[in-house]
Structure formats: C-alpha cells, structure tokens
Amino acid sequence: MSTTMRALSVCALAVAAGTAGADTIETIDFGGLVHGEIVSTQLQGSHGVTIDARNYSRSFDLAVAFDTHRTGTRDDDLEDPWSMGNLVGHTNLGNALILQENNYGIGDGVADRPDDEGSRPAGWIRFSFDEVKTGIGFDILDLESATAEASSLKLYLDGSLVASIDFMDFVDAGADLYDPTVVYGNNSANRIGIISADDLGIEGFDTAKFKLGGSMAIDTIKTVPAPGTFALLGLGGACVARRRR
Ligand SMILES: [Ca+2]
Ligand SMILES: [Ca+2]
Ligand SMILES: [Ca+2]
Ligand SMILES: [Ca+2]
After folding, report:
1. 166/75 Cα distance (integer angstroms)
2. C-alpha atoms less than 13 angstroms from C-alpha of 61 in its C-beta half-sphere
3. How far is the CA of 158 from the centre of ligand 3 (A)?
4. What is the CATH number of domain 23-226?
C-alpha cells in the first residue's frame, strides 16, 4: 500500500468513527439470521464483531441463532412468553444465541434442530470486537440456577483477562452488581444493564467471552465504544485539511 493510500484509509476510518456520537450504544440483537443459522462472521460488516464458540461435550463448536418466537422447538424453555425475570411475559426478543447441542443438518450452515447444550458446564461463546469497548450489557435467557449453572462473563484486552463477572453477582444482595429485578429459573429472561469499564476498574476490553454453565441463551449484547475512537475526529480533520492543500 502506498503512503498516500494509507493516509487516505486512515482518514476514511477517522471519518467513519466520527459519525458515531460519544454516547453511542451498539446493540447486537441477532436479527436477520435464520433459526438455526451458525453464527461466525455474519455480523463483522455491520457490528465489527466475530463470534466463535467452544462446546466442552461435543466434537463441534457452534454458536447458533435461536428464534424465541417459535413454538414446538427442541427446547421450549427458550420460547416466549417468559415465565420470570425482569423481561417476564411476551418480551419481543426475536433471535437469541445458543451453544448448539447437536449437529443435525449443519452442512448448509443452518442447524436443522436448534437446541442449547445442556451439559454442565456447557462451554463458551466469544465475541471478538474490532474496537475497544468501555461498557457491556446483555440478556440472559433460561438460566435456571446461578449455582447449578454457574456462568460468567470474562473480558479481555489484547489477549489478557481484565475482568470476570459472575452471573451469581446479579442475584447476590451483597455483590456490587446486585440487581433485585433479576430472577433466574426455568424459562426466565433477564436484562443486565450496561456495566461500564469504570465500574469494573478497567480501561476497556476488546473480547467478551460468555462462559455458559448449562442450557441457556444470550441476547441483546449492548456495547459502548471506547472514547479513544472519537479522538480520531481531530485526525480526520487534519486529513481533510491536508488533502485540500
Ligand atoms: Ca434478539
Ligand atoms: Ca441445515
Ligand atoms: Ca436444550
Ligand atoms: Ca431450562
């Protein structure tokens, strides 16, 4: 790449980043995917994220979209209306993301019988972001028991673990992240509000790994881009000025 081309791509990147506001929250709701679709790089273009998974009990490691509006699926605990939790009732969540338990018909990229892994612990689903984030919120579906299905979110920056959030903390009255509206149980749905890097005492993270203690799904991943992204705005202006000369 020539120096001019590189300069131009830096400008383009800066301008693109500059279009987002400082308070922007980016949401991944898994909309637009087919029930059973294996998710990996589909959200790269729209959300700058790559998703991968590990299933401790299988020879395949698949994160799969699950349509919570359906009935008669392989796991009706993942169908709305939700029985309990702070999203109880007919909360319209559409697709959620599961760790797939079987490999029926996966050859075409769409699992024929979407079902979440029930082994305890089940495995993990990882979100690798292109840019550093300073906050994250998410939905937890069908986590039955915080103790039996011990689950957590691990945050990494440049490959180093920087924070670990135990899902037990949301229901433990003594914990910093306690949220009295969160109720776990069969067919439950709970939204965890944005947890900021400040809350966690970290600068930020670029990878979020959900460790799944058992059968469950995650959804509505909300992230806050790091302010550093917006510092590029000044650089963008410099680029424009230089090109005009
Ligand atoms: Ca959704
Ligand atoms: Ca198929
Ligand atoms: Ca299941
Ligand atoms: Ca269940």
Report:
1. 25
2. 12
3. 33
4. 2.60.120
Integer Cα distance of 122 and 118 in angstroms: 6
CA 38 / ligand 2 centre spacing (Å): 10
φ/ψ region of 165 (left if φ > 0, alpha if ψ in -120 to 50, else beta) reads beta
- Please list, in sequence order, all residues whose beta carbon lies within 8 angstroms of the beta carbon of residue 238, skipping any fewer than 6 positions away: none
Rg, C-alpha atoms of the chain: 20
Global pTM reads 0.85
- Nearest ligand, measured from the Cα of 98: 3
Q: Which two tokens stand for residue 69?
A: 């509006």
* Residues having C-beta closer than 5 Å to ion ligand 3: 75, 115-116, 118, 215
CA of 216 to the centre of ligand 1 (A): 14
Mean pLDDT by 10 residues, the chain (245 residues): 48 45 85 98 98 98 98 96 97 97 98 97 98 98 92 98 97 96 97 97 98 97 83 44 45
Domain ranges of the chain: 1-22+227-245, 23-226
Helix (H, G, I), strand (E, B) or coil at 232: helix
* Phi and psi, residue 50, nearest 5°: -115, 140
